[in-house]
Amino acid sequence: MPKLSDELVKVLQVRMLRFGIASTTRSPISRMPSAACTSNALSLRSRSTGKERDSESGLDYFGARYYGSSMGRFMSPDHPLIDQHPENPQSWNLYAYARNNPLINVDPTGLGCITDLGQGSDANHEKVEFNNSINSDDCAGQHGTWVPGDVSANNTGAYRGDDGSISFQATTNTGGNVYYSSFVSGAQTDANGVGQGASIAHASADWLSSQIVGGGSLDQMMSFAARRMEPRGGGDLMALLAGPGFSLDAPDNWAGPGGRGTPQGQGDWAAMAHDYNFLTNGITIGSYFNPFISRATAKALIQSDNNLIGHAGGAQAVKMGMLFGVVNAFQWLTHPF
Fold first, then answer.
1. pLDDT digits (tens, 9 = 90+) for 132-157
2. Largest Cα–Cα distance in the chain?
3. Which of 78, 212, 273, 326 has the fewest CB atoms in 10 Å of its CB?
4. Of 11, 8, 40, nearest to 27 (Cα)?
5. Is the dihedral of CA 214, 220, 224, 226 positive or negative?
6. Which range among 87-101, 161-175, 180-194, 289-303 shows the weakest confidence by mean pLDDT?
7. What span, in angstroms and rounded, lies between the C-alpha atoms of 176 and 173?
8. pLDDT at res. 36
9. Neighbouring residues of 73: CB distance < 8 A, sequence distance ≥ 6
10. d(CA 245, CA 203)
11. What does 44-64 look like in DSSP terms, one character per residue?
12. Distance of CA 18 to CAs 12, 71, 107, 189, 294, Å?
């Protein structure tokens, strides 16, 4: 049997320095063959602050953005004029990680915190603080609500309920997905934006962008969705006629006149996009069977309806087709293209 001293090898130890740069040292503490140990250590994908490192690009995925540890900066900028402060010059560097001070600060998830600072004169003037530089625990500590992605005033709305309580709506874009978060003031959520008093849903950013008709942008659609204060009208009957199922209590926040709140499924997201297209193209219910609207408006109406029918899915697509199919036929006859 060989002596233990003959089998000692150098083990690769990986330490993460500031900005996520890896430092390697070797210590004679293992029997594992040196080459195998080195390979196993270098193949670890969990790196700085526990983020996953892409083996091909060498970038760390933080959810909202990718981070390059070799440069000590994010690869895309933060949203401007959201979390910038004159007294802190580093806050104006939109590519900086943790205010360029990773020994004190961390940015573990790239999520944002919304804190209700107190009631204003009404819900539209509620005092709110946005912070995209703290973690979920600190957010909870200041009675804020944690949501995916960077938060901003443009994509946040507030309304007062019948009982006087304040509720918020926020839309965020993490690059691949658009998130819609609804929550009561002070709702405590985890690192995924989930918690009591809050509801959250997401849809593909590309899928939503593909439904925009006649101009506009995804950012504008997100702002519209978050700041829409009018609840869906029509009650249970509208849910039956336009919602995803064939029951009076079918989950539905957007399919019908008005609409606000977390979309309840694919059809609800499509209905929200449909409402946005109507707004940006000047379309109203009165336009449906109006032969005197412009050709451009008629074309936008038909395209918006077709997008809703095509993207709603299931029973809701059938119901939308029966309703808007008649509208589209009328506009085709009165505005031949």
1. 877 777 888 888 898 888 888 899 99
2. 97
3. 326
4. 11
5. positive
6. 87-101
7. 7
8. 40
9. 67, 95, 96, 97
10. 20
11. --B-GGGPEEPTTT-PEE-SS
12. 19, 11, 13, 29, 60
pLDDT at 104 (0 to 100): 52
Burial grade of 247 (CB within 10 A; 0-12, 13-18, 19 or more): exposed
Worst-scoring range by mean pLDDT, 66-70, 179-183, 229-233, 279-283? 66-70
The Cβ of residue 122 has, within 10 Å, a number of other Cβ atoms equal to 11
> 189 burial class (0-12, 13-18, 19+ CB within 10 angstroms)?
buried
Residues 201, 264: contact at Cβ < 8 Å? yes
266-280 and 295-312 helices cross at what angle (nearest 10)? 170
What six digits make up the tokens of 90?
């580093």
CB–CB of 262/232 below 8 Å? no
Q: Which of 153, 158, 156, 191 is nearest to 171 (CA)?
A: 156
Note the pLDDT of residue 69: 79
Q: 114 forms bridges with which residues in the sheet?
A: 130, 145
Tally of residues, the chain: 337
